Amino acid sequence: MSVELGKPAIVEASTPPICTSCKRIVGPSDKGVSFLCPNCGAILIWRCRFCRKNVIPYRCPNCGFEGP
Ligand SMILES: [Zn+2]
Ligand SMILES: [Zn+2]
User: Which residues are near ligand 1, the ion (C-beta closer than 5 Å)?
Assistant: First the structure.
């Protein structure tokens, strides 16, 4: 018998935020930051600690604005 290694299903209503730059989950202890898109203000941008430290650019999925 083999155990199926699927992704763990997230059934909670409050799904963790995903880093806009690297698409990784920003955990509560991750010291990630969130802010509204400075261009359109409609999208909440999340950045994880790694992307902040490495100044990875983000891209707004709504208006396409890119920024550091
Ligand atoms: Zn990231
Ligand atoms: Zn935007």
Answer: 19, 21-22, 48, 51
pLDDT tens digit at each of 68 positions of the chain: 655 666 655 455 578 899 999 999 998 888 899 999 999 999 999 999 999 999 999 999 999 999 98
- The ligand minimizing its distance to the Cα of 40 is 2
Quote the pTM value: 0.74
Token pair, residue 11, equals 């059934």
Residue 64 region, left (φ>0) first, then alpha (ψ -120 to 50), else beta?
left
Nearest ligand to the C-alpha of residue 57? Answer: 1
Domain boundaries, the chain: 10-68
